Amino acid sequence: MKLQTITCSTRPGRVGPSISNWFNELANQQGEFESELVDLADFNLPVYDEPNHPRLEKYEHEHTKAWSRSVVSADAYVFVIPEYNFCPPPSFINAVNYVYNEWNYKPCGFVSYGGVSGGLRSAQQAKQLVTTVKMMPMVESVMIQMPWESLDSQRHFKPSEHHTNSAMAMLAELARWAGALRVMR
Q1: What percent of the chain has pLDDT over 90?
Q2: Are 148 and 118 in contact (CB under 8 A)?
Q3: CA dist., res. 182 & res. 185, Å (int)
Q4: What are the Cα distances from residue 179, in Å, to 13, 84, 161, 166?
Q5: Can you give the pTM of this predicted structure?
Q6: In 14-51, which positions are buried (b, 16+ CB within 10 angstroms) versus exposed (e)?
Q7: For the residues 32-43, what does the mean pLDDT come to?
Q8: CA angle at 133 for the pair 129 and 135, rounded to the nearest 5°
Q9: Architecture in CATH for domain 2-182
Q10: Could you read off the pLDDT of 76-103 as tens digits, one per residue?
């Protein structure tokens, strides 16, 4: 099964790619998925600009077609998501809303990060959004408090044991759900 580890922050100086790299490597070592890194910044999605509803899949812009091809190719997703003012970043909300059918009946998990809350509030709001495009969010998640304190001199994320344990539990559940939901797709 194919998993996408999606970096959701697009701002300069972001920590997300370091966390995504760590999680993606762990997911590939775990063995249930072939995981690939996806960075929302690479798609350069403007605020939604398609004239037709995403359910129709009548995309006119190349950035939408490229995003659609990426999303449809996966069986499951892990969103590496920061917390901005207690909310998910606008880049995540926009990316989810760009397509519809491509997300349907697939599980997703969240690796959230931020200040003292570890991005938990962002992930909780994001879970509400993903259910509206018929994704199944996992209860298991990874929350990283103050991630900038866990970066080495090359800006590589150095997880604590509880981060790794949480990630492994989430990956196990994602694999169970991805297998079960494949029947619905």
Answers
A1: 99
A2: no
A3: 5
A4: 36, 33, 27, 20
A5: 0.97
A6: bbbbbbbbbbbebbeebebbebbbbbbbebebeeeebe
A7: 97
A8: 85
A9: 3-Layer(aba) Sandwich (3.40)
A10: 999 999 999 999 999 999 999 999 999 9
Spatial separation of the C-alpha atoms in residues 19 and 63, rounded to whole Å: 25
CA distances from 175 to 3, 32, 50, 96, 108 (A): 9, 6, 33, 21, 10
As a whole number of angstroms, the longest Cα–Cα distance in the chain is: 47
User: Under 8 Å CB-to-CB from 101, ≥6 apart: which residues?
Assistant: 54, 55, 57
Partners of residue 76 on adjacent β-strands: 3
> What band does 107 get if pLDDT is binned at 50, 70 and 90?
very high
- The three-point CA angle 80-84-85 to 5° equals 145
Measured CA to CA, the distance from residue 24 to residue 87 in angstroms comes to 24
Q: Is the dihedral of CA 6, 181, 141, 1 positive or negative?
A: negative
Domains of the chain: which residue ranges? 2-182
Q: Are strands 76-82 and 34-39 parallel, antiparallel or unpaired?
A: unpaired
For residues 6 and 99, is the Cβ–Cβ distance under 8 A? no
